[in-house]
Design a protein that fits this description.
Layout lengths: L2 H13 L8 E7 L5 E6 L2 H17 L19
Antiparallel strand pairs: 1-2
Length: 79
């Protein structure tokens, strides 16, 4: 998505009370021409609780669907 798309999605998530979901530990977006996101969640179940809202916002803003990949976190280094 573009930077403008990303800003619109974040704004719509805030309006839908999905901007600060329970269980999300970290959110980041990166990229110059094409913005990508990654997040760290307490558990896959916490993400699944929010997936429907996220997908609805992506569809509603015209971004479309997201290619979501869930991977286990093997270690964390908070330093």
């Amino acid at each position: 998505m573009t930077k403008a798309d990303y800003e619109q999605v974040i704004g719509e998530l805030e309006k839908a009370h999905g901007g600060q979901p329970d269980g999300r530990l970290y959110h980041a977006a990166y990229g110059e021409d094409e913005v990508h996101m990654f997040e760290i969640w307490e558990s896959p179940e916490h993400f699944e609780d929010c997936r429907e809202t996220l997908m609805a916002v992506l569809q509603g803003t015209g971004v479309g669907s997201a290619d979501v990949h869930v991977h286990p976190l093997h270690s964390e280094h908070p330093d």
